[in-house]
Structure formats: structure tokens, C-alpha cells
Amino acid sequence: MEDFRSIYVTQTPTKELKIHNPTNYPLIGKGKQGAVFKISPEQCVKIYACKQHAEIEGRVYKSLQGSRIIPKLYEIGHKYIIIEYVPGLTLKKYLQIKGRISKSLACEILFAFKEMKRLGISRLNVNLRHIIVAKKRSFKVIDHVNSLKHHEPYPFKLFDYLDELGLLRSFLKYAKEIDRVMYDEWKVTMSKYFK
Questions:
Q1: Which residues of 6-38 are buried (b: 16+ CB within 10 A; e: fewer)?
Q2: Are 62 and 68 a contacting pair, CB within 8 Å?
Q3: Taking the model in full, what pTM does it have?
Q4: Rounded distance, CA 13 to CA 101, Å?
């Protein structure tokens, strides 16, 4: 059996990731801090260029365990973490393909943001490629290096993308019906989207 520890990730002075993968484990994603490889049907490993990022994200995942929106954490190691592999589409891709928003999807979106807030995640302005639409349209939120570090309490990226796709009005209509408290809070703090 191949050892994922033979994969390494470095960062150039311009912050570009360089990946050396002598294994057959497929690359399934990469970001600013690391690259993710599928190592089994149930698990993936995120390998970081910097040990500190692995430690930070590992601690965050550990503190968030038990929520249905957070992938299961299996292991924290030197410059890597192993988490649950979540098959599905990013929320960005899912919305792009569907081209519409249903009440049940709006309900899942609202639940995910309410749950992130309950968990103490202070970066609610998440990139939509970090929300995976899994089986039965349940969500998993990934990439937590800065989830507890940056204070971004409102989902501007979500609203901008829904607006770009022409889905914002439908989403806000459902949000008003499903969770009036959250809707009213967003209306006050993100008023430009409610005109």
C-alpha cells in the first residue's frame, strides 16, 4: 500500500503551491495552504506547505466535531490532517448547474450558516467552494484554517453569487419564511441586497 507521507507540498516565494506526488492518490483540491488527496473511499488527506497551518486546522476540526456540517476528523499529523471524504459538488457548482433555488435548499443553506454561528465560526463569509453539497443535499463545510481567526460575520460571497445567478430574490423570500430572525439581521447588516 502506498504511503501518502511521500507526497509533499511546498510554497514558492510568490505563495504558489508546488506539489510532488509520487503516489497514485488523486489530487481532489488545492488552496492557499495545502493540497487534498483522496486516500480511500471514506478519507482524504490535506497536506500543507506549513506545519503551523496543519496544526491550526487540525485544532479547529477537533473543536468542531459532532456537528453534521463538519467532516469527521481522523488524524492530525506533521503537516497533514486526515478527514472524511465528502463526495458531492461545491455549493457554487451545484447552484450553477441547478439554476434555481428550492425552499429545501434555502433551508439547508440557512441551517449551515446558523450552525456555523452556533459553533463559534467567526468567518461566515466563506467561499462557496468550501461548502460541499453531499447526499440528500446536506452540507459539509471544509477548509477551516481561518474559520476561528478572521471575523467576517456575514455571508457576502453567498449573496453576491446568488445575485449574480439571479437567485437572490428567491433565496430571500424563502429565508424570510424559514428564519425571520436571521433574515431581519441580514436585512439590517447587508441592506444593499434587500433593495
A1: ebbbebeeeeebeeebeeebeeebebebbbbbb
A2: no
A3: 0.91
A4: 42
Specify the amino acid at residue 89: L
pLDDT digits (tens, 9 = 90+) for 163-181: 999 999 999 999 999 999 9
Supply the DSSP symbol for 191: G
Closest to 71 measured CA to CA, from 147, 151, 158, 144: 144
- Report the candidate in 77, 20, 85, 31 with the shortest Cα–Cα distance to residue 54: 77
Cα–Cα distance for residue pair 151/105, rounded to 1 Å? 26
Q: Helix, strand, coil shares of the chain as percentages rounded to 5?
A: 40, 20, 35
Strands 17-20, 8-11: pairing is antiparallel
* Coil, strand or helix at 153: coil
**Residue 192, all three cell numbers:** 444593499
Q: What is the pLDDT of residues 129-152, one digit of tens each?
A: 999 999 877 899 999 999 988 899
Dihedral sign of CA atoms 72, 36, 11, 92 in order:
negative
User: Which alpha helices (H) appear in the chain, and where do they start and end?
Assistant: 51-64, 91-98, 103-119, 156-164, 168-178, 180-189
Nearest CA to 118 among 75, 67, 159?
Answer: 67
Rounded Cα gap, residues 33 and 17, in angstroms: 8
Pairing assessment for the beta strands 34-38 and 27-30 based on DSSP bridges = antiparallel
